[in-house]
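Quick log. Single chain, no ligands specified.
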Amino acid sequence: MQTVFQDKSVLITGGTGSLGKTLTRQLLAGQYGLPRKIIIFSRDEAKQHFMRVAYSTLKSPTDEVIYDNFRRLLSFRIGDVRNYASLCGALHDIDIVINAAALKQVPSCEYFVNEACLTNITGAANIVRAIEEHNFPVETVVGVTTDKACLPVNAMGMTKALQERMFIAGNVTCPNTRFICTRYGNVLASRGSVIPLFHEQIQCGGPVTITTPDMTRFLLPLSYAVTTIATAIKQAQPGETYIPKIPAARIVDVAKALIGDRGIETKIIGIRPGEKIHELMISPEEGVRAYDRGDFFAIAPMLPELQRKENISPRGRSYGSNDSVMTFEETKALLQKYKLMPGDDRSGVDEEMLA
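-> predicted structure:
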């Protein structure tokens, strides 16, 4: 896996987000092979400016690795996956596309459904269309999706589910490009997630708000999200969706661990629009097409043109966040491992967290 990105030209859509920043940092460090070019493609010029300035003032992208010409390697491009023309301009001479552009907050997508469709569905369609119509020699496209796309009950999950199908079908219309997906749960401390919210509520003296005492969620370090992407690029067959085997926790245990011995109360506020109590990574229907890949599961595509014979039996069942839930002690240990407890030097930091 150390050569997955070696000498490749990589386009990261939504590259100024938490995942994009961590991915960029690890690529510059040569953790999975040193790319020939990394292009950050996003519509927020302020975030691009701050990211560009942060790298331009460094002598090396990490404390461990000195790479003195990363300024030439890393470039930025203003654009939007919703805009077909801007995508066409960005896809020239690209080997690998990682589509991390998304509207991902569940309540926002419920109230602004059309906006979620434009980014999460039309954006993916534009990538496929551009490669097909211009015959761009893109080797691999990775769609970064979410557990909420599995048996979706909210607009965010529905649009992400259609994004998965859009990319899978792209293997048929663009046979020279491999389209694959990665699907995972809540990324620890990423922007807009529950842990930064709990930190803020604790700093303000509470209360810490809990939607429902039963709620469970998969928890994934940002660094392992990048590992999932790199593994999928290395191993996945066209149309496969890669899913990491990761722990799940009760959200009340997360809150309890973060509060510690502080005299801060918790308050049950009810489920927000579009939320599930438990999340699924693999649905029962997908279980008959899900195969064990060591630290990951791979869901085979349902399209007959993309199916291939497997030497092992499929999982045959679902994979949910309530299947095997960590104890309170295990949840606390996970948060401590990644320095997410209030008062830790790195607590509340998202983009560089866990890289």
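Residues 113-134 form the longest helix (22 residues).
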